[in-house]
C-alpha cells in the first residue's frame, strides 16, 4: 500500500538518535523503543557552496598512523576511528550497507563495550534488505551527520561500504534499463569518481593489499597497525619520530613492533609530561623532543638487555 504525503522524502531529526541502531527510514531496529523527534531534514539536502565553506584547518585524529601522518582528515579504519574519538566532542555516524546482521551486531557490541555508542548513531540495512533501502542508507546517514554538523559538532560519517550501495544502484538501474558499469579496483570506477568529485581529500584503498594482510590497505609500503588499537596523536608522534630518526635501524624487522609497543608503554609510564605537552599544545616542542629522546635511549638499553637474556 502506497500513500502520497505531498512532501519530499525526509526523516525525523533529534539528538535522541545517539546510541541507537536505525534503518534507512530512521526507524529504530535495536528494540529500544521509538525515538521522539520534533524536527525533520530532507534526505537529499542541498550542500553548502564552496565560497561559504571555510578551509580545513583542524585535523580529526583517526588513530591510524597511515592516515594521520600522511593524509590527515579534516575535522578501520572505520571502527578504530570511531573508538579513537571517545572524549573528543565528536559525533559519529556509522552506515552499514549490505552486511550480514551478525557482522553489524558484532560492531555494535564493540561500540557498547568501549563506550562509543554514547556519541554514535548506526544506520544499518542488511544484505537481505531491498536494494532501494540499501541505496537510501548512505543518504540517511549523511542527513543525520549534517544535522549535527550545522549545530557546530565535529562530525564523522563512515560508510561500510559504498560498493554495496553501488550494487544496489545497479539493480535499480537495470530495472530502469539504464545499466551502470562497475569496474572494481580502478580509481576511475563509479564510486571513486563520485567521491573525488565532492570530497576535499581522498584515500584510495586496495582490495588486493587488504587480502594479503596489509591493513589499513593504503599503498604506502609495508605499514602495519593492529586492528582495534588506534593510537592517540602523541603515540603516533613518538612512533614516527623513532623510525625517521634512525633509532630502529639496529633492530631486526621482527623486533620493531615489540620495541615500539614497549616504548609507548615506557613513555606513558615514565614521561607523562610528553603526552600532556602534545595533547595540550598540539605542538612538538623542544621539551617534548628531549623527553622522547630520553625515553627512546632508555628503552633501547632495556630492550638490548632483554634480547641478550
TrEMBL record:
Keywords: ATP synthesis, ATP-binding, CF(1), Chloroplast, Hydrogen ion transport, Ion transport, Membrane, Nucleotide-binding, Plastid, Thylakoid, Translocase, Transport. One of its GO terms (cellular component) is proton-transporting ATP synthase complex. The keyword Plastid applies. The keyword ATP-binding applies. InterPro entries: ATP_synth_asu_C, ATP_synth_asu_C_sf, ATP_synth_F1_asu, ATPase_F1/V1/A1_a/bsu_nucl-bd, P-loop_NTPase. Residues 75-186 form the ATPase F1/V1/A1 complex alpha/beta subunit nucleotide-binding domain. GO terms for molecular function: ATP binding; proton-transporting ATP synthase activity, rotational mechanism. It is found in: Membrane. Residues 219-298 form the ATP synthase alpha subunit C-terminal domain. Belongs to the ATPase alpha/beta chains family. F-type ATPases have 2 components, CF(1) - the catalytic core - and CF(0) - the membrane proton channel. CF(1) has five subunits: alpha(3), beta(3), gamma(1), delta(1), epsilon(1). CF(0) has three main subunits: a, b and c. PANTHER family: ATP SYNTHASE SUBUNIT ALPHA, CHLOROPLASTIC (PTHR48082:SF6), ATP SYNTHASE SUBUNIT ALPHA, MITOCHONDRIAL (PTHR48082). This is ATP synthase subunit alpha, mitochondrial. It comes from Setaria italica.
